[in-house]
Write a structure and sequence with these properties.
Homotrimer. By secondary structure, this protein is of the alpha/beta class. Helices cover 14% and strands 28% of the residues.
Length: 342
């Protein structure tokens, strides 16, 4: 087993950080402020955990300059400690080996093109016209459908399905159970029954995107469903057909975007939030958890909807009053009119 370790001084030099304390201390892993040991690195980015700094046993802590004087151990000083920690912690991530080649149990169509440097795991199926580019990794039981492309250095962890006409850019990470390129929900009602609309588009996903476990991205009805570069989707998210998501946008678990909505760049959408179809959301918009976007948002900012949690009896009383809101508003308007007339 290969043990990865770095001195504090090496980490400081590698990530262009100032360090204080023992630069020769060896670090071989990461941990929380409360749980880290003397050979582990931790970080402080949330003021709620400041009290834990005084008693930490971590070998080094990544923190900001204004808290460095309170650090009882070695310190790495960063403008944004959370970002710096994320970059350093990646050094200690140990992924299973993925040797180049095609596993004997994989099934590859004769017309598929698979790079010699790609790794195709057990039980994978690569269908006609599919392309797997240099250094891509397909974990167990992935399915790459017709006319699909897996970009260079992309990684499909396990049981990822690209249905048809899906293009993944470079370094895309798709977690287990993700389904990309499934049918969009297109239906026309003909008097007494539904007629299914064919979904003739595809899905285009840019470089450095991440698709969470069991997330689904439908292919377009005519044009493609599109994720620009560096879009990050959490687990169990639904992206409907013909949605367009701008670069560097992140969405938390169980969010859903209905068909033909357009999400801007650098947006953040909270867990279980929803965006109705055919709406547009501007760049740099934050939607808080469980909010429902029912109209287009034209300006950057933070937006919320929904009723905050209340004690149950209070909520029931308020809920009973909801159906009278229109009546109350009309009565108030009449009172204000009478007052003005006087």
């Amino acid at each position: 087993m290969i043990i990865t370790h770095y001195s504090v001084a090496e980490l400081a030099e590698r990530f262009a950080l100032e360090f204080r304390g023992d630069g020769a201390r060896i670090i071989d892993g990461v941990g929380t402020l409360a749980g880290a040991g003397p050979t582990q690195l931790s970080f402080l980015s949330n003021s709620k955990y400041t009290a834990q700094l005084a008693t930490t046993h971590a070998g080094v802590v990544v923190l900001s300059a204004d808290t460095a004087d309170s650090c009882p151990t070695a310190a790495l000083i960063a403008r944004d400690p959370y970002v710096a920690y994320a970059r350093i912690a990646a050094l200690f991530e140990r992924l299973p080996a993925a040797p180049p080649g095609i596993h004997p149990t994989a099934v590859v169509a004769p017309s598929a093109r698979v790079s010699a440097s790609a790794s195709i795991g057990p039980g994978c199926v690569i269908e006609d016209g599919a392309v797997v580019e240099d250094g891509a990794i397909l974990g167990p039981h992935c399915i790459i459908g017709p006319e699909c492309t897996v970009g260079a250095q992309s990684r499909l962890v396990a049981r990822v399905t690209l249905v048809i006409r899906v293009t993944l850019g470079k370094r895309v990470l798709a977690h287990p159970g993700a389904v990309i390129g499934s049918d969009g929900f297109g239906l026309a009602f003909d008097r007494d029954h539904w007629v299914k609309l064919p979904q003739l588009g595809g899905v285009r996903i840019g470089d450095d995107c991440e698709i969470g476990a069991n997330t689904t991205i439908d292919r377009g009805a005519l044009d493609d469903t599109v994720l620009e570069e560096d879009v990050r989707l959490d687990n169990q998210i639904q992206i409907a057909h013909n949605v367009y998501i701008g670069a560097h946008t992140a969405m938390a678990g169980c969010a859903a975007v209905a068909g033909s909505a357009k999400i801007g760049r650098y947006c953040m959408i909270g867990g279980n939030a929803g965006v109705l179809g055919h709406l547009e959301v501007a760049d740099r918009v934050t939607i808080t958890a469980k909010s429902l976007v029912t109209h287009s948002i034209r300006e950057a900012g933070e937006y919320s909807s929904g009723v905050p949690l209340q004690e149950n009896r209070q909520w029931r009383r308020n809920a009973a009053r909801f159906k009278h809101l229109d009546e109350y508003a009309r009565r108030l308007s009449a009172l204000e009119k009478d007052k003005n007339d006087d």
